[in-house]
CTF18 protein
Amino acid sequence: RRRVLEASQQLTEIINSCLESETSAESPEPSREAGPAEEEESALHCLWVDKFTPRRYMELLSDDYTNRCLLKWLKLWDTVVFGKEKAVKKSNPNAKAHRPFNQPKEQQSKWKTKVQLTEEILEAELDQHKRPKYKVALLCGPPGLGKTTLAHVIAKHAGYNAVEMNASDDRSPEVFKTRVEAATQMKSVLGANEKPNCLIIDEIDGAPAASINVLLNIIHRKDAEGEAAAGPGWRRRREGGLLLRPIICICNDQ
C-alpha cells in the first residue's frame, strides 16, 4: 500500500510539472490575480474528473451521432431565442446525376439511414411561435456516460448559459415550478450582454409524478394573449407565459 501511494504521488507530481511547463510555454507572463502558492494548492485539491473534463465540443468522447443530434436540436431554437432565421438547405444538382443506373428513384428514397430519418424529424416545420416541434430533449444512459458533460458543453457551444437543477432534490411541485419558470422565463440582471439560459434538469427519473405534470403543463402551455384579451388579466399572470428556452432532461432509467 505504501508503494502504491508513493507511485501515485510521484505520477501526480510528474503530470503537474508537465502541465505547468505547457502553461508557462503558452503564457510566459505570470498571472497577477493568483499567486503560485494558490495555483499549486488548487491543483493539488482539484479532482482529475474536474481537471480533465471536456471544455469544448471537439473534446467530447461521447457518441458522435448523439452529440450532433443534440446540437442540431438546440440550434432549432435560434429563431425564437436569438432571432436568427433558419438556414435553407441548397439542393445539390450533382446528387441526381451520380445516382446509380441500376437503382430506381423510388427505391432510393424508400430506404433511408438512421441519420437521414433523424434529420428529417429534427428539421420539421417550426410551430407558430418559431419553436421546434419537440420542446425537451431527454438524455438517458448509465452513470458515468457523460450525459451532464454533454449537455453543458453543447449548451455553451450553442451560445447559452447552462443552468442546472436536480429534480430529485426539489420534491415540492411548487418549488420545482418556480425554479423551472425562473430559469426559462426570467431575464438575467447581471449584465446587458448576458447569454440566454438553457435549463438542464438532472435525475428527472427521481422526480415525483406531480413535478412531471408541472413540467408537462409548462411545455404544453398555450399562448395566453388571446385568453387575456377575453378574460381578466390575473389569469395570464397566474398561468405564466410560453416556454421560450430549451430544456434538456437527464435520467439513468428511461
